[in-house]
Amino acid sequence: MIDLEDIDHIYLYPGSTDLRKGRQALSSLAAKIYNDNGLHELFLFCNRKNELIKIYEKDETGVWVYIRSLDETRFPWPNNIKEACKINKAQLNWLLKGLKLEKMEEKNSQKKDLF
After folding, report:
1. Between the chain's N and C termini, which has fewer beta carbons within 10 Å?
2. How far apart are CA 112 and CA 115, in angstroms?
């Protein structure tokens, strides 16, 4: 599992991505939704069927590329560049389990209502 302790930002790249792309092509796609400011960042790309994601991790020394697939469910994914979003570490953990981010937001708001 990715060590999230030092991650500064996490971005979901919208729409489907041809996951045969390598690190150079993923870097070019990532540049469309962020400005390279030297921070430690993750970029998540999803295939057309929303069952496979590629995670591009950029840190101070280089890059890592990870793959995560789901057997039975699908990743919830933004459709276009206007829906590109930045998520937090808890949402990333939720997403990697194949759970919908909206449900996490509902669960958190229910917890807040209890106190």
Report:
1. C
2. 6
